[in-house]
Amino acid sequence: MAEVNEPEDGVDGGGSLLSPGVAAGLASDAVWAEVDEGILDRILIEVGEGPDAEPIGTLAEVGRPRWSRNPMLVAAAVALFVVATVGVIAGIRGRNGGEVTTVAMIGTELAPGAGGTARVRPTGSGVEITLNIEGLAPAPEGFYYQAWVKGPSGLVTIGTFHARRDAHDIDLWSGVDLANYPTITVTLQREGDGAESSGQVVLKGEVRPPVDTDAREGAPGRGAATGAGPSAVGT
Amino acid sequence: MSRVGSGRRARRRLHGIDSENLGERFAAGEPGALEAVFRAYGGPVNTVAMSILRDRELAAEAVQQTFVKAWRAAGSFDPRRELAPWLYSIARRTSLDVMRFEGSPTRSGHEPEVEGSVREVGFEPTWEAWEIRRALESLPAEEREVIRLTHFLGHSHREVAELTGVAVGTVKSRSHRAHRRLAEMLAHLEDPGRDSTGANSPGRSEGSK
């Protein structure tokens, strides 16, 4: 933090009116950081002209988010889009035209009355996941809920929330490909216990892989389980 | 720090950025509302992102995602409430999400059996930075410049006078006015208990962890 030089003639320029905290804030890079001129254009491109407009779908290469410049992530997003549009329970048109996959979220024995949906929507810079949950008790004081995606490659957090307000959408975001992390879970976490999962899963759902039509025809029982009803794992 | 004037009056002025029915226009998804909100809050959102991420490129990503998320959720915003705390919460949560992703072991090719540790960023410091940025942006340009040159770059009033080509007395006058305005607008930061309504703090609301 830079110190404010006192006026040479001893006249207070007003610096003493500010608290040390505010003075420290005024000396921080973050407070004076200029906003990238191109951000507004990128925002408008990503959303179209309004919330009901069709998305343009691709961003100009210059100024694209770092995530979307990663070929692996782009490929993952494409793969996820294919999964989302082919094999899951409900491909519906979202508010802004993006394809949305709806995954059933089922309460575990720790929260048997809880349930709802996770709407999964690939974007140019990751995967937008929106939880709409009912029956989940607000996180007790000192605790919070944490959402994760997991699969054979491991476990990655996608956001935290408290559920202390009335039912509403909880916006989460994943930078990893849900094809490799198909299970969505919500755990109850104690504040201050660190970044690892507590293992206390209260909700769970699963993004299903594409339905194999041939296999379904050859094995009716499997097809029925894969293709109909909410895709979810109970525990 | 001396308290000058009415904090509530000053906060109304600070929060007057929500005027001109910007919240209503935004909630209604009116054309141009997103751009107007960006121009009003792009700086503070960037400040929150920089406070958390300490990286211009990552902060730019967080700013972009913040406004995209906000716009997509605009229909759920209650225009009777202030837009600033709502937007602040989205900005903070989005920045933390970006940080978590960047800190994820998957980024460095490690096996992600365990989620990468995330540096905890306090709630109050980012909110204070947001408020300071908003207060600065409400200052006249010449007063804001004096604050930048003295507090951020560490120049004396005499040096500021030389740099800006105005009399030292003018610099001091601008400095005093600027500090007085900032003190008024930011009085609530030194004693949050003064505002028992919580109207000027987003609180530890959803996603604020």
Q: Count of DSSP E strands of chain A?
A: 9
The CATH C-level name of the largest domain in chain B is Mainly Alpha
Q: Spell the H/E element sequence of chain B.
A: HHHHHHHHHH
Query: Which two protein chains have the largest interface (Cβ within 8 Å of the partner's Cβ), and how many residues from each?
Result: A-B, 79 and 90 residues
Helix content class of chain B: 55-70%
Number of domains of chain A: 2
The first-to-last residue Cα distance of chain B is: 30 Å
Number of helices of chain A: 7
Q: What is the level-2 CATH architecture name of the largest domain in chain A? A: Sandwich
Shape, per Cα inertia axes of chain B: globular
Secondary-structure-based class of chain B equals mainly alpha
How many whole angstroms does the radius of gyration of chain B measure? 19 Å
SSE arrangement:
The complex is a heterodimer of chains A (235) and B (209).
Chain A: H1 20-26, H2 29-32, H3 39-47, H4 66-69, H5 71-86, E1 91-93, E2 99-107, E3 115-123, E4 126-134, E5 143-151, E6 154-161, E7 169-174, E8 183-190, E9 201-206, H6 213-218, H7 220-227
Antiparallel strand pairs in A: 1-2, 2-3, 2-9, 3-4, 4-7, 5-6, 5-8, 8-9
Chain B: H1 7-14, H2 22-27, H3 33-53, H4 56-72, H5 83-102, H6 123-138, H7 141-152, H8 157-164, H9 168-185, H10 187-190
Task: Describe the overall structure.
The complex is a heterodimer of chains A (235) and B (209). Chain A has helices spanning 20-26, 29-32, 39-47, 66-69, 71-86, 213-218, 220-227; strands at residues 91-93, 99-107, 115-123, 126-134, 143-151, 154-161, 169-174, 183-190, 201-206. Chain A folds into 2 domains: 35-64, no CATH class; 68-216, Sandwich (Immunoglobulin-like). Chain A has 7 helices and 9 strands, in the order H-H-H-H-H-E-E-E-E-E-E-E-E-E-H-H. Chain A has 235 residues and is α+β, with helices and mostly antiparallel strands. Chain A is globular. In chain A, 23% of the residues lie in helices and 29% in strands. Chain B is mostly helical and 209 residues long. Chain B folds into 2 domains: 1-138, RNA polymerase sigma factor, region 2, helix turn helix motif (Rna Polymerase Sigma Factor, Chain: A); 141-191, Winged helix-like DNA-binding domain superfamily/Winged helix DNA-binding domain (Arc Repressor Mutant, subunit A, Orthogonal Bundle). Helix content of chain B is 62%, strand content 0%. Chain B has 10 helices and no strands. In chain B, helix 3 packs across helix 4 and helix 7 crosses helix 9 (168-185). The longest helix of chain B has 21 residues, at 33-53. Chain B is globular and about 50 Å long. Mean pLDDT of chain B is 78; it is low at 1-7, 104-118, 192-200 and 203-209.
